[in-house]
Amino acid sequence: MTAPSNRDPGLQPERTRLAWRRTTLTWTATALLASRQTAHSPAMHTAVMVIALLTFWAVAHHRITTLRHAEEPPTMAPGTAAAALATTLTLAAIAVVHVL
Amino acid sequence: MSPGRRGRGMGDSAQTICLSFTPRRIRDDGETPDYRFSLANERTFLAWIRTALALIGGGFAIDQFLTGLDGTVRAALALATIGAGALCAVRAVHHWVRCERAIRRGEDLPATAFPALLAVLVTIVSVTMVAVVAQGSA
């Protein structure tokens, strides 16, 4: 338990955890919208998208867990940012393939 | 703004791009800041990722729902929106690196024209969509 004197009055870790949850929700909603279209194309597209979504979920879950348990939350690992970027760009690539 | 800040050359932006790809070195730079600053920077990063996702989703939606449009126009609008989304995602990481470094060094946060450029692009796509849809229904 954190002593009251150490409590962050700005609730920064909580707000950051919620930001990750919002982003996961946005990712999932976008993937659902996209799946309406990938359903009519090779199963490969849906598979790639599901892998990207699961990767983002895993990364977000890991970060949320870290923020919950750390006494002094560490700076986001660069790999976390890179993974968020890579999965988002994968979704963009699938979108481009579908438009063309 | 300090006089030296304005005169940043190509070397500095090249260094930032390098840091985006090998960001572990961020931690070697400056001092470890109050974690609240880093967390605020992280939330800004996440907000930009959500913006990117919304734009990519918008691209899917244009392609999916504006079926009455000419194929080329629809593809152009969708690609512009998706491209803006991809740019937002890349820029989210780049900006996060720059801010993290500025925080660690105790410098001013980087000034950027990106939000304004994004606003212009989104306005152009929106106005084009309204015009094309209105023309189609007339």
Chain-wise SSE layout:
The complex is a heterodimer of chains A (100) and B (138).
Chain A: H1 12-38, H2 43-69, H3 78-99
Chain B: H1 3-6, H2 10-21, H3 35-65, H4 71-105, H5 114-137
Rounded to an integer in angstroms, the radius of gyration calculated over CA atoms of chain A is 17 Å
Low-confidence stretches of chain B: 1-10
User: What's the pLDDT, averaged over the residues of chain A?
Assistant: 86
* Estimated radius of gyration of chain B: 19 Å
Give me the number of helical elements of chain B.
5
What's the domain count of chain A? 1
Description:
The complex is a heterodimer of chains A (100) and B (138). Chain A has 100 residues and is mostly helical. Chain A has one domain. In chain A, 76% of the residues lie in helices and 0% in strands. Chain A contains 3 helices and no strands. In chain A, helix 1 runs antiparallel to helix 2, helix 1 (12-38) runs parallel beside helix 3 and helix 2 packs antiparallel against helix 3. The radius of gyration of chain A is 17 Å and the shape is elongated. The N and C termini of chain A lie far apart (55 Å). Mean pLDDT of chain A is 86; it is low at 1-5. Chain B contains 5 helices and no strands. Chain B has one domain. In chain B, 77% of the residues lie in helices and 0% in strands. Chain B is mainly alpha-helical and 138 residues long. The chains are: A mainly alpha (100), B mainly alpha (138). The interface between A and B is large, with 37 and 41 residues.
Task: Give a short synopsis of this structure.
Chain A is an all-alpha fold.
Please tag this protein with its features.
heterodimer; A: 100 residues; mainly alpha; 3 helices; elongated; disordered N terminus; B: 138 residues; 5 helices; 77% helix
